[in-house]
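Q: Is it fine to ask for two folds in a single conversation?
A: Yes, each is treated on its own. Send the first.
Q: Here.
A: Result:
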Amino acid sequence: MNSLVPALRVSDLSFAYGPAAPAVLDGLSMEAAPGTITSLLGPNGSGKTTLLNLILGWLIPLKGRIEIASLALEAYSRRDMSRLIGIVPQNEGLAFDLSVIQYALLGRAPYLGLLEMPGEEERRLAAAALETAGLTPLASRSVLSLSGGERQLATIARVLAQDPGTLLLDEPTAHLDIGNTRRILHLLRDLREAGKTILLTTHDPNIASSISDSVVLLKSGRVLACGPPSSVMTSGNLAGTYGVPIRIIDVEGRPFVLIS
């Protein structure tokens, strides 16, 4: 796998979806340390997905700076970016009915020339990605036939075949049952142990608490607090973010949220 694990740094970032539109992000600054899991935690509309799109270069900020491995985002070509960062979106539409292994092979596109077909090395890496995601028995299955949790794992496998140092995941456990949520979280922990840098969005405080080395608490495009879950996820911080009374209990050294 790629030995480069780029850290992310965002400085004083602001963005709006039009000249007269309200700011979605307003002077936002945050960091994701190499080889860690950082959660962007906040309610719907707090700017989490927009921030991911800015990091990917899909949107242009009004002001501010984004750095990957200490270089400005603008220093990288599109191909460079697709090798450095992989994205697992909330919903990835599929135009074609592909097998799971064919879908994973799409992750090798940044390393192939125009019209170049995947070779033996690409197939080996795609198969290894399926093994990591626990999907080898489903390699010949249609992606369209997979359950929600299996499809999410297949998307992660596609990104792993891409071999990026950093993974961005947008609400990776949304709409999944407890079993599939557990599978995703365990896989993300394993990827962290393998040296990947992971930045994920979630509106669920308990997901953020259970998996994160660092939490960035967002509201209305601003950072309210950032740091380890134990320092960020206080009843006062979360009540101010979500607008409801919140009680925190300690579960094995991590905060667990009870809605009062």
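Q: Second one now.
A: Result:
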Amino acid sequence: MTVVLRDVRMIYHPGARQVLALDEVSVRFPAGTFSAVMGPSGSGKSTLLHCAAGLDRPTAGLVTIAGTDLGDLSETALTRLRRDRVGFIFQAFNLVSSLNAAQNVALPLRLAGRRPTDAEVTTALAAVGLADRAGHRPSELSGGQQQRVAIARALITRPAVVFADEPTGALDNRSSRQVLELLRGLVDDHEQTVVMVTHDPVAAAVADRVVMLADGRLVDELAGADAVAIASRMTSLELAC
């Protein structure tokens, strides 16, 4: 599922103290590809992700998912599209502490009015290597395991596009590798679209391409670059800020 942003502007606090978070950004995330979004702090990375996923409505410009203009949708229709077609993975996991892993994974389907089968939940947990942790609550899981539960929760609805906001930011190196391998597998094995915000050049190097922002504008794009090349470009952007 292709995601397109065209001439997107996002202004927070319209008025005298307005902040221009995105400034005429146009970018395309083709179906079945893995894209990383990078940039210095305050460059608009998370804002771009939230607009692309339909979590925030931009001040101006066009956002489409699979050809559907998000600006034309009512809040109800937009919620339905996000529920049925989009998965979102957060750095902070956002698991419900009182629910076990299986219950957390089942939550999106229950919120959609569906009663998930045990097989659906088990399959989702098995896909992230946690079938044996179904009865454990978040406090009984490591950070990497919690993030994998969050990924299973995002995937149980079988979304066509997955947005990930710093999914490895709170993880150790081993857990980060596991999460990145899972995201890479979504693209290679299932032809899903993945868009990931990250500050880590090693994580970004797993993607097919890296989109770079600075001061709310798209300033560069690297395809097939390794971590060294990505880190070098990031350093030059940060020095220019």
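Q: Anything structural to flag on that second result?
A: Two points. The chain has one domain: 3-240. Residues 3-240 form a domain with the Rossmann fold fold (CATH 3.40.50.300).
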